[in-house]
């Protein structure tokens, strides 16, 4: 457990010529790469620095780290989580100010390219920061390859149905939320007034009716993530969603490069979806904290608690806070690239064409066999991150309002209009083939 007396001092770990490079940001935090000319301290090796933004509405880092160590990490196995280490920014104010000023300079250097709603936000004057595992794609394979890795990030979200959902629900919590999101976006579009000097013709009315019937793009049904281990069709659907790099995709947080169907990295991802146990552990942890047994209000007997709708406002709901924390994590997948140099280099690209030879076929078959054997030994690196504690006291009213909308307005249960995808809960058993 981290205590102030055991927390490392970042200033003492940095060389004199240190600097920072902006890597990314969210609503409450900014991520930096630490730049040094000399070999870094072992504690900084393969680590990024995460710091809170100024005026961000979030729990302090000391509280966040204590919660991660005591409540989150025990739920998983070694290697399941993006590791995080709390550090002091500086033992004295001068060092701390120097570190913060150089981080702010790194942010200012990329200001024009930042997301519009993030522009202007700055590094907070904070005492603590976090060192987190660097999960970016490496230029070459970690395990003996020469190709480029691909980094895939996605949100597993609700791997089990909401305990507040109606018994006749045909959509999981994630699919229902996507329907609501699409509905609100469409309503906002339809409420826009027509352009000036433009009359509203019958054709416009027809177009509006057609727009109302328009269907949202396919999204990732997160229950399919679990079904991928036993169902080929579910795995194919997940693969098609996760390997789509288009900005309109609502399934993937980030994908560094496209993953062509049938490619080596596509096969490695498919094998991981079929055989991984990480998502199952995450699903079990979500479910366990959704439905804990509690004494009733009079202390007599036990009752099963549901989700956020049965949580009591003004009282602590630690299980719900943990369940919602586990639903907002990010899954990072580093998928190794092809081994060795590119095929053209191996074939001597640029040289004279060679005559066909029967021996070439035999050598090709042998090379393919060796490649298959090598591929069996390569694994996708998978870790869960972004597991900061959810502030249930501040968010409970929002969670409850959203859940009531999903129920009352039929986003769990309505069958029309049909989407380009169907939720796993809506499909019949005949629609699915097991491996």
UniProtKB/TrEMBL annotation:
The reaction(s) this protein catalyses: 1D-myo-inositol 1,3,4,5,6-pentakisphosphate + ATP = 1D-myo-inositol hexakisphosphate + ADP + H(+)
GO cellular component, one term: nucleus
Top-level EC class: transferase
Region (Disordered): 188-209, 336-379
Alphabetic keyword roster: ATP-binding, Kinase, Nucleotide-binding, Transferase
GO biological process entries: inositol phosphate biosynthetic process
Domain of life: Eukaryota
Compositionally biased spans, kind Acidic residues: 353-364
EC number: 2.7.1.158
InterPro entries: Ins_P5_2-kin
A molecular-function term among this protein's GO annotations: ATP binding
Family from the record: Belongs to the IPK1 type 1 family.
Function: Has kinase activity and phosphorylates inositol-1,3,4,5,6-pentakisphosphate (Ins(1,3,4,5,6)P5) to produce 1,2,3,4,5,6-hexakisphosphate (InsP6), also known as phytate.
Domain notes: The EXKPK motif is conserved in inositol-pentakisphosphate 2-kinases of both family 1 and 2.
PANTHER family membership: INOSITOL POLYPHOSPHATE KINASE 1, INOSITOL-PENTAKISPHOSPHATE 2-KINASE
Protein name: Inositol-pentakisphosphate 2-kinase
């Amino acid at each position: 457990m981290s205590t102030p007396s055991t927390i490392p001092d970042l200033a003492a770990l940095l060389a004199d010529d240190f600097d920072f490079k902006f890597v990314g940001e969210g609503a409450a935090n900014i991520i930096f790469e630490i730049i040094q000319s000399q070999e870094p301290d072992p504690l900084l090796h393969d680590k990024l620095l995460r710091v809170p933004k100024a005026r961000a509405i979030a729990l302090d880092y000391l509280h966040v780290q204590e919660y991660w160590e005591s409540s989150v990490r025990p739920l998983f196995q070694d290697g399941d989580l993006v590791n995080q280490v709390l550090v002091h920014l500086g033992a004295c104010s001068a060092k701390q100010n120097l570190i913060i000023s150089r981080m702010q300079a790194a942010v200012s250097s990329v200001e024009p390219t930042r997301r519009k709603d993030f522009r202007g936000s700055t590094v907070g004057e904070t005492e603590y920061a976090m060192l987190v595992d660097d999960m970016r794609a490496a230029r070459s394979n970690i395990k003996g390859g020469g190709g480029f890795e691909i980094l895939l990030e996605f949100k597993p979200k609700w791997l089990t149905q909401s305990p507040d959902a109606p018994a006749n629900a045909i959509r999981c919590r994630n699919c229902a939320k996507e329907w609501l999101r699409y509905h609100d976006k469409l309503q906002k579009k339809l409420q826009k007034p027509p352009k000036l000097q433009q009359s509203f013709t019958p054709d416009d009315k027809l177009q509006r009716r057609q727009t109302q019937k328009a269907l949202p793009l396919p999204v990732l049904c997160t229950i399919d993530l679990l079904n991928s281990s036993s169902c080929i069709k579910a795995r194919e659907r997940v693969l098609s969603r996760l390997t789509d790099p288009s900005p309109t995709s609502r399934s993937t947080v980030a994908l560094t490069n496209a993953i062509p169907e049938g490619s080596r990295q596509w096969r490695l991802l498919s094998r991981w979806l079929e055989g991984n146990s990480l998502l199952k552990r995450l699903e079990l942890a979500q479910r366990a904290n959704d439905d804990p047994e509690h004494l009733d209000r009079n202390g007599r007997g036990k009752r099963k608690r549901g989700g956020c709708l049965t949580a009591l406002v003004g009282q602590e709901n630690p299980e719900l806070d943990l369940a919602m924390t586990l639903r907002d994590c990010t899954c990072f997948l580093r998928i190794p690239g092809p081994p060795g140099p590119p095929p053209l280099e191996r074939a001597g690209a640029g040289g004279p064409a060679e005559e066909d030879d029967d021996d070439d076929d035999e050598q090709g078959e042998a090379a393919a066999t060796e490649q298959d054997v090598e591929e069996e030994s390569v694994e996708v690196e998978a870790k869960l991150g972004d597991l900061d504690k959810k502030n249930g006291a501040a968010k409970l009213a929002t969670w409850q309002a959203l859940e009531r909308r999903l129920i009352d307005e039929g986003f769990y249960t309505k069958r029309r209009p049909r989407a380009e995808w169907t939720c796993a809960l809506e499909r019949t058993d005949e629609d699915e083939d097991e491996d």
